[in-house]
């Protein structure tokens, strides 16, 4: 059985017990406040759904997500930045609280903050999962430093 929840920037599909949360903001899937809200809503939904046994996070064939949308942030004053940072943190926390295995499916590029919040195949990471998380963080930092 396949169900769909269409959204312009974040979509959720479920097939055979596996939910896929997809970011749809090419080319880099920058996490604007709108994307953050959609990401959080999708994470909250898969947490509640009984038909979902595992979750895949997908951003496209080239990059998962660039991180926070710095273009959107350019016009924020200090107070606005502080207020909106909580939205980003809340979206990452929603992913971290998913009570099911979560796996990122991305070839490269990723938000270091999101990588650190992913629950890698259960509550306590194995050596393999720790290595995957380390690789995710390394790739994210490497991609972040690219000119």
SSE inventory with pairings:
Elements: E1 2-5, E2 10-15, E3 18-23, H1 33-48, E4 54-58, H2 70-73, H3 78-96, E5 102-105, H4 112-117, H5 127-145
Parallel strand pairs: 3-4, 4-5
Antiparallel strand pairs: 1-2, 2-3
Explain this structure to me?
By secondary structure, the chain is an alpha/beta fold. Helix content is 44%, strand content 17%. The protein has five helices and five strands; from the N terminus they run βββαβααβαα. The chain has a five-stranded mixed β-sheet, with helices on one face. β1 (2-5) and β2 form a beta hairpin.
The strands making up the biggest β-sheet line up spatially as 1-2-3-4-5
Which residues form runs of ≥5 with pLDDT under 50?
1-6, 120-125, 139-147
Give the integer mean of the pLDDT values.
Answer: 75
Number of helices: 5
Q: Gyration radius, to the nearest Å?
A: 15 Å
% residues in beta strands: 15-25%
Write down the overall geometry. globular
Order of helices and strands: EEEHEHHEHH
Q: Tell me the distance between the termini.
A: 44 Å
How helix-rich are the residues, as a percent range? 40-55%
- Quaternary structure classification: single chain
What structural category characterises the helix and strand content?
alpha/beta
Total beta-strand segments: 5
Largest sheet: 5 strands, mixed
């Amino acid at each position: 059985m396949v169900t769909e929840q269409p959204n312009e920037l974040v979509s959720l599909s479920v097939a055979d017990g596996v939910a896929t949360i997809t970011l749809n903001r090419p080319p880099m899937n920058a996490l604007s406040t709108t994307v953050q809200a959609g990401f959080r809503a999708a994470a909250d939904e898969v947490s509640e759904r009984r038909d979902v046994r595992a979750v895949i996070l997908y951003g496209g064939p080239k990059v998962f997500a660039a991180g926070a949308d710095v273009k959107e942030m350019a016009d924020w004053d200090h107070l606005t930045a502080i207020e909106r940072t909580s939205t980003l943190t809340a979206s990452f926390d929603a992913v971290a609280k998913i009570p099911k295995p979560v796996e990122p499916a991305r070839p490269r590029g990723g938000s270091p903050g999101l990588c650190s919040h992913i629950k890698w195949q259960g509550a306590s990471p194995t050596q393999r999962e720790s290595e995957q998380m380390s690789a995710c963080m390394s790739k994210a930092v490497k991609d972040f430093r690219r000119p």
